[in-house]
Amino acid sequence: WIDLCKSRGYEQVVLLGHSLGAIKVIYAEANDPHEEVSQVIALSPPRLSHMAFINGPRSAEYDQSLAVADQAMAMGQPGKLIDITFPFPLLIAAGSYVDKYGPGERYNILEHVAHLRTPTQVCFGSEELTGSVAFEGLPELISERVAGSGAESMVTVDVVDGADHMYSQRRDELSTWVTRQLMDD
User: Fold this and answer.
1) What's the whole-model pTM score?
2) Domain of 27: which CATH number?
3) Would you give the distance in Å from CA 15 to the centre of its chain?
4) For the residues of 86-125, what is the DSSP string, one character each?
5) What is the extent of the structural domain holding 85?
6) Is 171 helix (H, G, I), strand (E, B) or coil?
7) What distance in Å separates the CA atoms of residue 166 and residue 31, rounded to the nearest whole number?
8) pLDDT at site 185
9) Which of 23, 35, 119, 130 is deepest in the core (most CB within 10 A)?
């Protein structure tokens, strides 16, 4: 996509994603940065962390879901669709489940934010920051992770008060926040 934008004459590209898309824009720019990317905006990226899940309040449910995926993998069936309940009811290929939620920590944003060298704004809704190990404490954990890494001047974290994961009652506030990020660049 970046090459397509370049071919059409765009000199700056902003990567913006929500939820899993927010993980993807952080992961992409931290691991394969492009000089054309002028900014990353990550809206509500969850922490997909095996360590957080096995130590969280729903660890038994996580263990059961991972065991189902691991069993399919052991049978040489990474493409087998499995019906799991963690982190929410989901029909997913076993290999995809292990890749996203397994012990590799591949998509744990805390493993990537310190490698960002592109201005990055991360935003969460205040309501999503409680009750889910995927979000609890993330604003503080991100700030801690980037401190002293060289990314502290690149990564900022904001919270939209009263917003849930979909910003359903705070879309105007989110729109204003995103516009402000784009204008400040």
Assistant:
1) 0.92
2) 3.40.50.1820
3) 13
4) SSSSEEEEHHHHHHHHSTT-TT-GGGTGGG--S-EEEEEE
5) 51-101
6) helix
7) 27
8) 59
9) 23
Query: Do 14 and 55 have their domain in common?
Result: no
Nearest of 183, 61, 58, 67 to residue 133 by alpha carbon: 58
Question: In sequence order, what are the beta bridge partners of 42?
Answer: 17, 122
Please indicate, yes or no, whether residues 115 and 84 belong to a single structural domain of this protein.
Answer: no
Cβ–Cβ contacts within 10 Å for residue 149, how many? 13
Q: 164 to each of 49, 67, 121, how far by Cα in Å?
A: 21, 31, 18
DSSP letters, 16-76, are: EEETHHHHHHHHHHHHS--TTEEEEEEES-----HHHHHTSTTHHHHHHHHHHHHHHHHTT
Whether residue 142 is found in the same domain as residue 87:
no
For 131-173, write each residue's pLDDT tens digit. Answer: 899 999 999 999 999 999 988 999 999 999 999 999 999 999 9
Whether omega before 87 lies within 30 degrees of 0, making that bond cis, reads yes
Q: Return d(Cα 50, Cα 59) in angstroms, integer.
A: 10
CB atoms within 10 A of CB 168: 11
Same domain? For 39 and 112 the reply is: yes
